[in-house]
Amino acid sequence: MRLCFLVEEQYRYDGMPVEVIRQLTAWGHRVDVLRPGSSLLRLSEVVRTGSHDAWVLKTVSGGPGLSLLEAAAAVGLTTVNDARSIRGVRDKALAAVIGRSRGLPMPVTYAAARPEALGELPETEFPLVVKPADGSSGRAVRLVPSPDRLAELAGELSGEGMLIAQPYVRNSGIDLKVYCVGGELYATERCSPLHPDRPAHERRVPLSAEVARMAAEVGVVYGLDLYGVDVLLGPDGPVIVDVNDFPSFRLVPDAVERVARAVLVLAREGGAVSGTGGAGALAGAGRTGPDTDETGSRTDGTGPRTDRTGASADGTGAHTDRTGTSAHGSGAGADETGAGADGTGTQPAGTEPGTAEIIPLPEPARVPVRFRATAAGDGR
Q: Which pTM does this prediction carry?
């Protein structure tokens, strides 16, 4: 397959996606890497029908990458995730409307083009969490305890464009991050950026059936296949406070291989919006190794799929499927980037800014890979 990755400078040396690109090339696939933030691109040559089997986006919100991904989708190219779905979660105001209208447990959300407009909210709505509608990686997220404090922060927030504000959900100060890759769910907990005074060791944790069902529904509602969900365990139950396309997949076991396989399946068959007609279509992808089954799955790293219920092919039941019926386990995982990067900071060939050079590989081109199953554990 020939793939194109759109990678922002911020992620140039990040394990996600650098190690995924390396894995795909090791399996014999040809990868172009474009850096939309620093490259001069001749669009008529770069974005054209039939140029690639799929385009993959790993950029910050508000950057130029999404426009290029949408251009690729406009000429009929497959995108990972679906370009419309990415737009639906990167605009946090739009994401809030979509989520609440579909019954997801999300806070009441206010939007304002100017921070001083939020001062019209009654004091009973405070404390507020205020953040840019196009924010990412925790940029400019503020816990605002009172209207007076909001007035003090107006200068800092005035250059952030559209803002959203949500009443603060009381919680322990620990965030739960749920990742979906290949139709399976994994959860980690870590200290909330709103509560840096409450240190917590980041670790994998068991996933309750309630949160698993909710996280699986996020993929259906937004049409995402690779995503992360930020969840708070509030006094009235779990609450979704953010959804991210193509997150870091931190601490997900074998994250690089799992993401690479998912990209290949989506490139071949389409995703939740563009092709297969269901967000659960990838459930259990690649779990049984390289043999081809009756679905026509091949041996180039994607592996045979299971049915749409997400039942695991190897019978271990070790991971949570998209139906949210079982808890994931613990075990050896990737490093904190979610990718097992070697720390050298080296790049794969063909990734210099301004280039879109194809990466050639010697034969044999394809190497089958078998995933390890992990037993349900204690989250350590």
A: 0.73
